[in-house]
Specification:
By secondary structure, the protein is α/β, with parallel strands linked by helices. It has helices spanning about 10-20, 25-35, 40-50, 70-85, 90-95, 100-110, 155, 160-170, 210-225, 245-250, 265-280, 290-305; strands at about 140-145, 185-190, 200-205, 230-235, 255.
Length: about 325
């Protein structure tokens, strides 16, 4: 493929070659007419004499012989280790005594799928779920988040205190010198696959009634945003297999992930990792109330202001037409 500053396209080369071969122009005259070097005019004229119009196409720049290329036997060993063990270039290189960059080039040359695209147990390529419009698919999941004792957890008070808190929680022992962990929050999340817009609540459990009530409120919120949900994707948790959740969905189609394959629900799983990094453990909280109060503010920032890498650096709200509150 010609670079953008090349003076001749394939059509221009053909015109130059015909001027020389068929019309009898001298190489110098043709070179001046087409603003190229005489040697360039000579090359295209020679290719036209040899191959005709087909010779005007670009040729591969790959050398005919590469004496330093990795031997075919070594390439086969690299591919065999990758397929059987599903290792990355570093581990394969260490095993075979080859530099990781060489392993990477071999895998790329043969079009071997990257590990992040694979389902590790089966070796199958994970098909990325793509949606064309908002509301086409909403992912739902629950994440447990440990509550923070008054005065702060082990990140605030040190690991020794955290260990004593953990033991107190297991044995049920309470004393004025200990601050036992007070249980968990269950973070229910619904995320639109196309826009990544999120509705989320901190609730007390993950029972079927709780999950059903959460979806009713989430669906109402999506409707207020102008999003009509047509499909919902969940895992196979008991709360999502219940009649209460089925009734809450109504006419909305319910899809479930394959058992033991959380990658299928990857968008909401990735959101939970983001909130852990940017909200739950982003700074030292002195109490559980303080962290809970921060969550709605962080969630608004995520939806309306935080750039998302999958959206070209734009916030999720940018993909929802006429969404109010985007710049508030």
């Amino acid at each position: 493929m010609s670079h953008r500053n090349a003076p001749l396209s394939e059509t221009g080369r053909l015109r130059l070659a015909r001027c020389v071969v068929e019309d009898g122009w001298t190489l110098r005259r043709a070179a001046e007419r087409f603003q190229v070097a005489v040697t360039t005019a000579q090359r295209w004229a020679a290719r036209y004499r040899e191959l005709g119009p087909a010779g005007m196409a670009d040729r591969s720049s790959r050398p005919h012989h590469s004496p330093n290329q990795t031997p075919a036997r070594t390439e086969r060993r690299i591919i065999k280790v990758r397929v059987t063990r599903r290792w990355g270039p570093a581990r394969i290189g260490y095993l075979l005594g080859i530099h990781p960059s060489t392993v990477h080039r071999v895998l790329t040359r043969y079009g071997i799928a990257r590990l992040r695209w694979l389902d590790r147990p089966t070796g199958r390529v994970v098909r990325r779920i793509e949606t064309a419009a908002v509301g086409e698919l909403v992912h739902i999941d629950v994440k447990k988040v440990g509550k923070i004792p008054d005065g702060g957890g082990w990140r605030m008070r040190g690991r020794a205190i955290g260990k004593r808190n953990s033991q107190a929680h297991k044995t049920g022992v309470r004393s004025k010198h200990r601050h036992p962990v007070r249980g968990y929050h269950f973070l229910h999340t619904a995320i639109d696959a196309h826009s990544r817009l999120v509705y989320s609540e901190l609730l007390a459990d993950e029972r079927k009634e709780t999950a059903a009530g959460f979806w009713i409120r989430a669906n109402a919120w999506f409707n207020q945003c102008g999003i009509i949900v047509s499909k919902v994707l969940t895992d196979n948790g008991s709360c999502y297999r219940s009649h209460a959740f089925r009734d809450a969905l109504g006419d909305i189609e319910h899809r479930r992930t394959r058992p033991y394959r959380p990658q299928t629900n990857g968008k909401v799983e990735r959101f939970h990792r983001t909130l852990a990094d940017e909200w739950a453990y982003a700074r030292l909280y002195t109490s559980d109330t303080e962290r809970c109060a921060e969550y709605p503010r962080w969630l608004h920032t995520y939806n309306h202001h935080r750039g998302h890498t999958a959206l070209g650096g734009q916030p999720p709200a940018s993909r929802v037409p006429n969404l109010s509150g985007q710049y508030s």
